[in-house]
């Protein structure tokens, strides 16, 4: 029971794992960054069932890495973040569509709409504002994370390449002997 409330190795371990997993991908910095940005971008949309497919398609068109797209999608859009994402996109969507006064007295019965799964009835009150409201934060976060990921992966790969070249140089040089020559 304690493990559910407070993990033994801490809450930051999964974040460090995902970070290292992204950094160690054997792709160009652009491909990794484009994949992460595609995953983050689609995580803002209200279409949960197809986030990975959408991330793969966007990543493909941006010449991104598919694994990075999946990791970006899973890291940014998860059950812990969805309530915040939905609230933000809902509010921004209503601001952009100028609906704050229009829906003030109306109540939307989401349970009934989802039970019927009638897309046309669900579009106007729920999906349209969330989709419109997702565009600004998705654009900002995906561009910011593209830049952050690109330069982080580029620096990591440069340091790794330098370290591997140094190891190879030392191996080729052979063992160093401490005995003086006579």
UniProtKB/TrEMBL annotation:
Where the record annotates domain DUF2062, the positions are 12-161
Pfam families, sorted: DUF2062 (PF09835)
Query: This protein's superkingdom?
Result: Bacteria
Which residue windows are transmembrane per the record?
A: 48-68, 130-153
Q: Which InterPro entries match?
A: DUF2062
> Which keywords, in A-to-Z order, does the entry hold?
Membrane, Transmembrane, Transmembrane helix
Q: What is this protein called?
A: DUF2062 domain-containing protein
The source organism is Rhizobium lentis
């Amino acid at each position: 029971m304690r493990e559910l409330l407070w993990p033994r190795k801490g809450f930051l371990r999964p974040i460090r794992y995902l970070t290292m997993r992204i950094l160690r991908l054997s792709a160009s910095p652009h491909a990794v960054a484009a994949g992460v940005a595609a995953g983050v971008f689609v995580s803002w949309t209200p279409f949960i069932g197809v986030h990975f497919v959408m991330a793969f398609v966007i990543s493909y068109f941006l010449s991104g890495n598919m694994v990075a797209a999946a990791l970006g999608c899973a890291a940014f859009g998860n059950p812990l973040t969805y309530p915040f994402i939905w609230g933000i996109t809902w509010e921004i969507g209503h601001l952009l569509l100028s609906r704050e006064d229009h829906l003030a007295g109306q109540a939307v019965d989401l349970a009934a709409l989802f039970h019927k799964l009638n897309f046309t009835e669900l579009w106007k009150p729920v999906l349209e504002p969330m989709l419109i409201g997702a565009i600004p934060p998705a654009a900002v976060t995906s561009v910011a994370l593209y830049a952050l990921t690109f330069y982080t992966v580029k620096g990591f790969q440069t340091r790794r390449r330098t370290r591997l070249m140094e190891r190879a140089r030392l191996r080729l040089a052979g063992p160093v002997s401490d005995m003086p020559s006579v």
